[in-house]
Amino acid sequence: MKLLTATAYAQGLRVDDFHWAVEGELVTLRAFCDMHLDRPHGRCECGRVFVGLGSFYGTTTAMVRDLPGITETDYLEALRNSLDAQGWDARHADAEASRLLTEVDRWPVGAIVERFVDGLSVRALSDASIGRVPDRR
């Protein structure tokens, strides 16, 4: 199954990039605040961040990876548990999971995705489909 995961790949293409999540962990979108609507690259990062389901830390880049051992049910359970553990309302987990799965399905494995408030787009491509992410040095 193709899913979005945290990655440091393609970091630094924007001056406000950051990667504090665990490389390869599943990510979700965090709700964004009103401050972010008029200045998405302002001091609040909530409209640019993907949040790790396990670490709860953020990253501004996510990679599409093929994770064959994870089912849609597993993914939804992980998302619900993470939102609940972070103190977010998990009632909308089904809709969020469905949206992310639909978005990810149209991109190739290895696509590096960025977020701009409520929109997701491909920033770069990696060679992750063969299991390697190039060194960033």
Give structural notes:
Residues 1-124 form the DUF7715 domain. This is DUF7715 domain-containing protein. It comes from Frankia torreyi. With 137 residues, this protein is an alpha+beta fold. The chain has one domain (1-123). The chain has three helices and seven strands; from the N terminus they run ββαβββααββ. The strands form two sheets. A four-stranded antiparallel β-sheet has the order 1-5-6-7, covered by helices on one side. The radius of gyration is 14 Å and the shape is globular.
Write the layout of secondary structure elements.
Layout: E1 2-6, E2 27-29, H1 34-38, E3 50-52, E4 58-59, E5 62-66, H2 72-85, H3 93-105, E6 111-116, E7 119-125
Antiparallel strand pairs: 1-5, 2-3, 3-4, 5-6, 6-7
Q: In which range does the helix fraction lie?
A: 10-25%
Number of strands: 7
Number of helices: 3
Instruction: State the end-to-end CA separation.
Output: 30 Å
Binned strand content = 15-25%
Domain count, please report it. 1
Briefly summarize what is shown:
This protein is an alpha+beta fold. It is built from 3 helices and 7 strands, in the order E-E-H-E-E-E-H-H-E-E. The strands form 2 sheets. A 4-stranded antiparallel sheet has the order 1-5-6-7, with helices on one face. A 3-stranded antiparallel sheet has the order 2-3-4.
For the structure shown, list the relevant keywords.
DUF7715 domain-containing protein, 137 residues, DUF7715, three-stranded antiparallel β-sheet
